[in-house]
Amino acid sequence: MADLEFIEIPKALVQDRPAFSFDIGGTCAKLAYIKAEPTCSAEEGGHSNGKANQTVKIHLSLYTRDDLDKAFDHLQKYMSESGDEWRKGLVTTTGIGGHQFKTKLSEEIGVQTKNVNEMSCFVQAFRFLCQNIPHEQLFMAPSEQGTELMNRMRQQLHDFVETLNSEDFIEKEVDLGGFPDAEGISGALDTMQTTNDKTEVTFEDMFPCFLVMVGSGQGILLIEKDGSFKIVDGTNKCGRTFLGLGSLLTGAKSFEELIDLANKGDSTAVDEMGSDLTTGQGNDMYSVIPQDMLLFSFGKAYKQDIESFNKKDLARALLNIIAMDFVQVVALNAEVHNVQKVYMCGNFVNKAEVMRDEISKVFVQRSGFSVWCSKIEYKFVQHGGFLGAIGALLQTIQKSDGSK
Fold it and tell me: Quick one: DSSP state of residue 176?
């Protein structure tokens, strides 16, 4: 994998020296490091009075667990370029693999490492970045395709609820107390669109919130205004399940291959939709179900062989199931804990636009049946898959007067 990224943070908040940290999760290994930057005079193109003297780069690199040796080679290269400066600090690790590979990592880099709490790392990194980098760099902008998908879903939900509440709807004896009225859902969806399109919010306004890890598994952290946090829920059906079932269904051997299939697939070839079971005509409850509303995931696979389906369609249908389960867990917990702000991080969303689009679509879908869900303000954290590694790094370089 080895995607190379970086973020710039204020130099005044950290110790200006080379440092390294590893976050080894269930599927990926994330490396965050600060390396010795070459200095040059202004005549040589230096930045004696510019941004380079005011910020420091945290470099980010991603590997699969199968490629850990490549990650160690990468680390050795930058360690040699930094001389012995990096040895002045502690090398930190986190994640489930930080314990599993502690001995190997210590042998490879020639020093002892310290494992630090993964959840603390995520929270520390998130709060630090929220305070110290521009918000347009902190969150990922919605894709055009995702925005179009959400707008179409909003209109469908509005029409659906409007019909349910109309005078012509014949099943008036059915209790529709769980459904908002058409005017209410229209207003709620407009609010949802506005709040999730906004970029600038103050640090104080961001909390309390959920920080949701979307990686091999899903974990939901409730972060309070004072920085305290607790784990409130999660699910084991997330990125690793997508990879495992996806590999069985399609034969794909990598995350990139499986996401590429899903991005090109059509889940309606596998899932049963409203159009498969209803006519779309009449004025009873079932007739007014939107024709392209998902009714049963993998419903068309019943009594069929896997060869009857295209691999791309199977991959997309699987991704949709993961996204729907994910949003349901988040939305229910948000209502229970009275939380309206949700920030999602992790490589399953950071490295897959199609997953972000699907999650956004499901949030809109659920808002048609849950007034609370329509109040949720959600965003995807840029570089969110590296929060664990960044937090582990900050534990060794952040100055005591920095963000806590």
Answer: -
What's the pLDDT score for residue 189?
58
Peptide bond into 208 cis (omega under 30): yes
Strand partners of residue 57:
8
Distance between CA atoms of residues 311 and 260, nearest Å = 11
Contact 331, 373 (CB under 8 A): yes
Is the CB of residue 3 less than 8 Å from the CB of residue 256? no
In sequence order, the β-bridge partners of residue 60 are: 5, 32
The answer to whether the CB of 29 falls within 8 A of the CB of 68 is yes
Between the CA of residue 375 and those of 47, 331, 347, what are the distances in Å?
Answer: 46, 10, 26
Could you give the maximum distance between any two Cα atoms of the chain, in Å?
82
Neighbour count for residue 195 (Cβ, 10 Å)? 16
Percent of the chain with pLDDT over 90: 47
What Cα–Cα distance (Å) separates residue 131 from each residue in 126, 167, 363? 9, 52, 27
Q: What is the 3-class SS of 1-58, one letter each residue?
A: CCCEEEEEEEHHHECCCCEEEEEECCCEEEEEEECCCCCCCHHHCCCCCCHHHCEEEE
Place of tokens 């249908």: 317
Who's near 165: CB < 8 A, 6+ residues apart? 176, 179, 181, 182
What are 141-171's pLDDT values in tens digits? 888 887 787 777 777 777 777 776 666 665 5
Helix (H, G, I), strand (E, B) or coil at 404: coil
Cα–Cα dist 254/368, whole Å: 35
* Dist CA 107 CA 10 (whole Å): 33
